C-alpha cells in the first residue's frame, strides 16, 4: 500500500521489450533505494511494481502485457522521468490517502492552465468512471494523491496542483494530449457499488413482490 505522496521523479535507465512483458530499470537516490530487496513493491507512475533485481541505487521491474496495455508503462523509454514512491511502512505518516497501485486505466489531459505557481489540469476519462470521481473526493494520478475539483457530465474533472506537488512530479511537464495513470479511491468505489447493489436488490424485490393494494 502507498500514501500517494510521490518522493520525486527519477530516470529510466534501461528498457527491454520481450513477448508478453517489458523489463525496465529506474535509478533512484541512495536514500530512496536504502534497504530495498527483491520482491519489494514500488509505485512507478502510480503502478505497483515488484523489484526483480537491483544494484545499490538501480531497481529493475517487469511490466506484464496487462500492465502495458492499461497504463503508461507501455510507453517507457530510456531517459524518461517517472514518479516513484516506496511502499508504506508501519508508522509512516499518511499524508495522502490509501493508494494501492491498482491502476484502472489512463486519462488524457485536455486542458492545462498555469495560475501563478499553481497548475490546473482537466482530465478526460471514460464517462462510466465518473460515478466514482466526486467533487472534493480523492483520486490518484500517476500515483499522486489528489483532491478532485470540478466534475462534469462529459467525463472530465479538474485537479489543482500546488508548487510542491509540481516540484516532485511530472505534472508541470504535462501537455494537452498526454496520458496519466488513474487509480480510483477504493473506498468510494466500494460505497458506490454497495449502494447500487442494495438499491437494485430492493427494486427487484418490489417488482417481484409488489405491496398489496
Record keyword descriptors for this entry.
Elongation Factor Tu (Ef-tu), domain 3; 213 residues; riboflavin synthase activity; repeat; 2 domains; EC 2.5.1.9; 6-stranded antiparallel barrel; Riboflavin synthase; 4 helices; 39% strand
Can you put this structure into words, describing what you see?
The protein is of the alpha+beta class and 213 residues long. The protein has helices at 30-33, 65-70, 163-168, 186-208, and strands spanning 9-18, 21-27, 41-44, 47-54, 58-64, 81-86, 105-115, 118-124, 138-141, 144-151, 156-161, 179-184. Helices cover 18% and strands 39% of the residues. The longest helix has 23 residues, at 186-208. The radius of gyration is 19 Å and the shape is globular. Keywords: Repeat.
The amount of beta strand, in percent, is 35-45%
CATH domain topology of the largest domain: Elongation Factor Tu (Ef-tu), domain 3
Helix content: 10-25%
| Reported CATH architecture of the largest domain | Beta Barrel
Structural class by secondary-structure content? alpha+beta
Spatial gap, N to C terminus: 53 Å
| 3D shape | globular
Q: Biggest β-sheet: count, sense, barrel?
A: 6 strands, antiparallel, barrel
Poorly predicted segments: none
